[in-house]
Amino acid sequence: MSNILEDLLLKGLGTLDLTREKLEELVESMVEDDELTKQQGEKVLKKWQEKWQKGEEATRENLEEFFEEKIDEMGLVRAEKVEELKDELEKTREKLSELAREFEEFKSESSN
Description:
Elements: H1 3-32, H2 38-73, H3 79-111
């Protein structure tokens, strides 16, 4: 994941944590004021936590897709792809060296 994507996610999660804190404070206050039972408060918090997790996953997926598209649009290559290409290049070089040796052996045998 790119640093920009990580920064955006962390900022989003930081904002989410502040919102979660405020909700927890609100629920706690409502429980203290007997507007909710402790069980109801826990249920509300659990329900919101599930929603936050789903939203966080969706946001992460959307951001990853967005940045993948932008990377492609800009013609940039990811490090993994560079490594794949290096491996392929090394295999091609090895094969070429092998073919050159075989050719030299063939030339030597032909001239004898």
